[in-house]
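S., here's the first fold you wanted:
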Amino acid sequence: MSDLAQPDETGPRPMPSSQPVLLRALRWGLIVTAALIVIFAVIGFLVSEQRGLWGGVIGTVLGGLFLMMTVGSIAFANRFIERDFYITAFFGIVLGSWVFKFIVFIVAVVLLRDAAWLDTRVMFFGVIASVIASLALDVIVISTSRIPIISERTRP
């Protein structure tokens, strides 16, 4: 076999080229989520005062947190790239974060569905706005990023 087909085990493995993109998406996700919290707190307060304010804040926090956990878990899992168990750790961390988000979402829905101090309609729209904003942000970050398709290992 040629040297190109075999990985170089003598040096440390470089961080995946997508890592800066993930960190950029995470950073912008925090900024957009913070802005949505303020916007939906105001909208919620105008719609149904204190109940709406809490609905807007909780909805946007939940939506933003859940969506940023995926990007954050991938970025965190990439830190294990130099370990022999990288693939196992990567999928364990990412899938574990998805299971955790699912459990937290179910618990939040059950605990908050009949809360008298909360406008669940405003909360619902806050979650939806966070999801749409996060998806749009991910498209913008990915489409404006430059990720090399040829790594150092495959160059002649």
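And the second, which I think is the more interesting of the pair:
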Amino acid sequence: MAVHEHSQNRTASASGDAVSTLTDTLTGTPTARAYAFASLRLLTGFVFLWAFLDKTFGFGYATPSGKGWIDGGSPTRGFLSGVAVGPMESTFHDWAGATWADWLFMLGLLGVGVAVMAGVALRPAAVAGSAMMALMWIAEWPPAKHLSDGAPSMSTNPFVDYHVIYAVVLIALAAAGAGATWGLGRIWARIPVVRDHAWLR
């Protein structure tokens, strides 16, 4: 006679909804993993949102007081004009301070920050955030040992830096459906257009 034990493992729902992988299948309550992902989501979202706020208002951290976007400063001029290595060095110099670049960059920071913190549209946020991180990685070009002027680049790793880590985190959060705990992910997933177009989750 076979003895069947109730499995306590956590599995995805029949619909394949990633959100269920972060909850106990018997009780529907969040698991320790769900809380860990939620914490990671909130912290990562705040990195993007804080960058937007500091560059907009000039809180005196990365952006000096009085140099914020609302004061007429450019969120992209300082960073892009300072690019000193890599295959897109001259292109980034051309983009530095351009109105379209400022708006695109700031809307990206705001959109990714709000979406990730709220736990909604994690897949589009992962795509947008990863694209931003890829461009910033290219701007810093970690593979180079020396800058264009011959000075040491001070790169600590030729491949993996914090831009790569942030991109992977964004992708992991989207893949795990991490917006369900401490977020609006479940409500967002029930919106008809989101329910019908999984890429919006």
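Why I say that: The first helix runs from residue 32 to 57. The CA atoms of residues 126 and 170 lie 5 Å apart.

Talk tomorrow,
H.
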